[in-house]
What we know:
Layout (H helix, E strand, L loop, with lengths): L3 E7 L6 H10 L4 E7 L6 H5 L8 E5 L6 H9 L6 E4 L11 H9 L5 E5 L11 H18 L11 E4 H6 L9 H11 L4 E5 L15 H16 L2
Parallel strand pairs: 1-2, 1-4, 2-3, 5-7
Antiparallel strand pairs: 4-6, 5-6
Amino acid sequence: MLKLSIVIPIYNERETLETLIAKVSAVDYDKEILLIDDFSTDGTRELLKKYENKEGFQVLYHNRNQGKGAALRTGFSNVNGDIIIIQDADLEYNPADYGTLIEPILDGRADVVYGSRFLGGPHRVLFFWHSIGNMVLTTFSNMLTNVNLTDMETGYKVFTKRVNDTLTVKCNRFGFEPEFTAKVAKNNFRIYEVPISYNGRDYSEGKKITWKDGVAAIWYIIKFKFTN
């Protein structure tokens, strides 16, 4: 079995972090867990201290808040595994789906796997306009990249070490999603989508992405169509 590198970007997730880490730890694969704190101010950094010298963990700290993309970039530069899994710290995505996510890679069919929230998996019912916004962004991205994803913005993106070694991501915030997709498409990596479960949270529960990030995503979709 190949080794998994679970990259977890973290910003002010004190309420969910330890539960998430327990769920990731319980998944029965050879793995390392990389915890990247993006200068949390809610006590998260203090919680992370207990994992600093724990076997199978890397704990990395930013000295200022930079955004999800920057935290992921820090994680990607420190992985040692064969398959990289992006795992949000907010319990919206369930580590029990790892088997489904890595299967196309293990079978030799895929280099990159997207866990889609719109392929029939169980999900918490939340915001209609969020789903419409995601559909618009995904469709626009598909038009410029010539792929047919259903969920470009998904937090579950899984890929091989070769993909990680090939791509250089630059976006610091949520622009990572369209940037990664554009660069995967440009490099002709084999992409699969699989259904996942999704327990979305609302803003009272700490959801961070806003309409401004959606507007920015449109710009990044255009930008990375024409630049590297």
